[in-house]
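ok so for the tutorial part 2 we go from a plain amino acid sequence to predicted structure tokens. step 1 is just haveing the sequence, like this:
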Amino acid sequence: MAYEKLEIATPAPVLSWANHPLGSEETKMAKNVASLPFVFKHVALMPDVHLGKGALVGSVIATKEAIIPAAVGVDIGCFVGDTLVPLVDGKSYRIQDLATQGKEFIIYSCTPTGKIVAAQATAKLTRRNTQLVKVILDNDEEIICTPDHQFMLRDGTYKEAELLQTGTSLMPFYAQTDKDGYQCNHKVVAVIPLDYTEDVYCLTVPEYHNFALKAGVFVHNCGMSAIKTPFTAEQLEGKLKKIRLDIEAAIPTGFNENKDVEKSVTNWQRWDDFQDLHRGVQDLQGKAMKQMGSLGGGNHFIEVCLDTENQVWLMLHSGSRNIGNNLAQCHIHTAKELAKMASNQLPDPDLSYFVAGTPEFQAYWHDLQWAQDYARVNRDVMMARFKRIVEKHLAGGKATKPLLQVNCHHNYAEKEVHFDEDVYVTRKGAVRAQTEDYGIIPGSMGAKSFIVKGKGNAHSFCSCSHGAGRLMSRNKAKNVYTLDDLIEQTQGVECRKDTGVLDEIPGAYKPIDQVMANQADLVEVVATLKQVVCVKG
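step 2 — the prediction. this is what the tokens look like for a chain of 537 residues:
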């Protein structure tokens, strides 16, 4: 289905892929957003659109020089055009030339175990005339990039360029040894802000999300998380309940937290930056550490799924937990206070915003990046535990290599180029779907889910839905449906079947097949999944 332009009078048009009329409150919310003076081009509504706070869930909002702190996200860093990227053909190419070609190519990536492998990638222009820093390494290489681009550290974690310190060890691409036979790490000598701007570029690496530079280090490329395993449906027989109970024992849900903090959590280097976060969260570091590697509640989930070829997939959905919510609330409060002081006549206080270049904007953007990093590591810790549990039951505890890995963010903001202009894109309950981007579109706890690849539809700002979308509120679902309804609608799924998850009943969500049909011009389906185990918060 193509979009339809809604018949509402607003300065910016509203394009909808929902294929149904909006309710009165939904229409009002769409009008409020489309009336903001800094909205760019139009507002795009995804097929799963429904009521949210301030802005509709399932809306994509591009803005010029301002951002609404209802979104949680991270800016994606990039490199100047002369940056050299080694390909598996033995030659190195300018990243700008790779972007101009518009074709897939094979680069080098680093796996979670530190192994260097070949992977498919594409390149594109991501920003124009942006600020830059120069990262100088001890191998005499210099890398010019945006301050926020993430570099892979020797322990496999990531840190933004501007936060790298002298002596920081980076993951090496070229294996070199010193005179005593020990492998050398590349270390940072200095990070220098530059006084000029340039257009910048980045790669998309769907499988491993990082790539090597000729300078000899690995960097991150621009959620939900899913991996395709080598296991098949037959191996799951008779083991589903044991797997679910083990997951529930190993991964805290809801408001719960880990009793002990594991080493992979305490080793996260961004704990050093906690003191630079908003002063309103400074007493929450201990809780944040204990909640890293936990699921949360609501529509968050951990699932074992089967695709149409009976291959086993592991999938989970979680975010930045209590610390992310508290950071958001602190900044939303600041934005509302600023709006009052400026006597801004906003249609909804939840649309209070920060203007680019102000201290409040910079503080918010910094904390967004930290929270998004936290969310990513939180998912990584859970997925590692989840994978070990499944391997215990299906492979006697032997570690296996995923056949495909997919990660995607939603509820976030990015600085991107659309219609040849730099804009901030807020995807509130939406997923980026640029050409060749892999994404995850889950249904409800009793419905199908989809692994997709983006088509790069410009009118949607290269976006798609992040799920089925709610058909009714949580309270209404509890009043409309019974426990018997939940048991019937989750037949064949090993999951909780009690009134505590009644608000997540499949009937409370839009039919996922219709949602997918409505966005056929946004994504193509790579795999269709159906859960056999579902753990909810």
